[in-house]
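From the shared-data thread, chain only:
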Amino acid sequence: MFASIRCQNVLIYLILLAISSLYLVKYGGRITPHYGWLTAAYGVLGCGVFFMWHRRYHRLAFDLNRRYQMALLLLLIGLGVLVMSIIPIKTQVGRAIAIQEWLENLFQGQFPYRAESLPSGFPVLFLIAAPFYLLGDIGYLEVIGIALFVILVGLYSQPADRLLRLWVLFSLPTTYYELLTRSELFTNMVLVITFIFAAEMWLNPEKIDRYFILLAILAGLLLSTRLIVAEVLAIYGIYTFRDQLRHGFLFAGIMSATFALTLLPFVLWDADYFVCHGPFQRQGQYLPTLWMIDFLILSLLTSWHIRSIRAVFFTSGIFLMGIVSAGFIRAVMLVGLQNTLFANDFDIAYFIFCVPFFIFAIETPRGKEST
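Structure, as tokens:
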């Protein structure tokens, strides 16, 4: 069903270039009036380096041993902490403010979702950020998220892929946007990828044991960050349980029950406000519910053809990109391209949802190609 690895790599990189171009067009103007030239130069340079790698990867690829990986990780964390201490808090985006206000309300005994910033996340998202809020800067959450992604690349990449994936990560303006604005979108998806790798290690679809139950509970907690996580969990769920559907339904039931339990305290606290102005309503503003259901059904049907974990990442990236693109196109139709790009009618930062999945789907061709 899917194209060759080489064709997929080209498609992935074109998508990442398109996302980067959107970021440079929207935010480059705040740095230089020549943001058009900046975007064009980035595209030409990025394409050149990428295609040179694929023509000569056997000469360029070398392994990053554990010592270099640890040095890179410590350097990354140190730079991240330095950035958080230097960059003024006023650069943070509305999502960071929403997390702060949600937690402030909670600690003061007020209903957390009654905040001026209109928080849109589910409860677990804010609880994950709580330790960093108590440390004084939720921006550290994104530093940890990027560091965790680097660790995953080091642990679950072939030597020829490791350097390429890290280069892509740090060549994308989205990475620096997340740090500078103290966003948590990238970290949210990295946690989902971490869950997938953990499930690959410990989940046996033919056996119901403590790992099965624990991972189902963790999946429910991840679902209680953002609803779009359901798309990835559905794709991975079909890939994992297609030969054990009864166990798959049990896994989904435990996951759904866990998700519901995380919402129950807030429903009991203020049901009317939670239903009318809570995360379901906020997240549904970007894309109609029927569209989301259509994407979910299509992803479930597509997942039956997946035969590798790499294909899980590629398919997840495609559907996440499709969902956000549908919301972007809808906004353009409603308010026009200029307002969609430069006003507050649509947040293009949501395009970063697909980025970590695409990075893990990039692979240097070697031997017989397969998906």
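Residues 5-361 form one domain.
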